[in-house]
Prior knowledge:
Distance between the termini: 39 Å
Number of helices: 5
Low-confidence stretches: 163-169
Amino acid sequence: MHANDPISVTFSPRTDESAHYSSVMGFLHLWAVYVRGFNPQHHCQRCLRGPISKLITSRRTPVLQQIVLDEARNFSVVYICGVSNGRIGDRSNRNLHLPLRCVPGEYFEYETYNKYRIVVRNAQLLPIPHLEDWWMGYSPAFSRCSNFRFCATFFGLPESRKSLSEIQS
């Protein structure tokens, strides 16, 4: 991370309904991790190695306020994740997944399922590739998890896991 140009995000409500709240609403869980590595024995948040932000949290992430993500040093990516409200079967298409790499001067906007506009500065949004079910021998709970898919492709798997999956094929 470039110390003089930290990643920043601002959540702005797009509907009158959410405009009167002082913090982001509509997510069961909302968090960010300063990712330093990958634990392929887990999926979801537990596969991301690194400190969890205290600035982006469920029910306490401020709206209309720039959040400067400068709480940690020596990380590869800031991963912002929000688990949407609603039926479990509907969540995967509505969850928030923003893996961000610090790139000074970059800027983009993103709209969430519940109409928050997120302005991101000094970061590039990284892709989350698709993995087939049972990829490298991992169950669909892993291969369908966006956190796991991102880390498996960004960081790669340890050689011991690759060897095990080649033997099982």
